[in-house]
Write a structure and sequence with these properties.
By secondary structure, this protein is mostly beta strands. The protein is about 0% helix and about 50% strand. The chain is built from no helices and 11 strands.
């Protein structure tokens, strides 16, 4: 059974950092591009970042460029999202998702497998 499990969320003060992890089980992550998405209450799910299967190509939403870094360790079957300089508007449930498509999309419907999400709250 294909599963993605996110971890690393929590409560952090503005300006703080968190590192999210997306671990895969039941399949080899190296064959998939991985996207990170987030959904705040009352808002649509939006793409935050994407990394190609090899890790060579990354994309970021304008709202997180320069603050978030996506990376992957295929040997550990895990993808990471390092989030620095966090702002209250980054508060959301964060999801990782996997696709075998090589089209560098950050729209949710381009992804086939999803994790259950992890809550990130940025507040003083």
């Amino acid at each position: 059974q294909l599963q993605l499990v996110e971890s690393g969320g929590g409560l952090v003060q503005p300006g703080g950092s968190l590192r999210l992890s997306c671990a895969a089980s039941g399949f080899t992550l190296r064959a998939y591009a991985i996207g990170w998405f987030r959904q705040a209450p009352g808002k649509e799910r939006e793409g935050v970042s994407r990394i190609s299967s090899s890790g060579a190509i990354t994309r970021y939403a304008d709202s997180v460029k320069g603050r978030f870094t996506i990376s992957r360790d295929n040997a550990k079957n895990t993808v990471y999202l390092q989030m620095n300089s966090l702002k209250p508007e980054d508060t959301a449930i964060y999801y990782c998702a996997a696709t075998q498509s090589t089209i560098p999309s950050m729209t949710p419907n381009a992804y086939d497998y999803w994790g259950q999400g992890t809550q990130v709250t940025v507040s003083s």
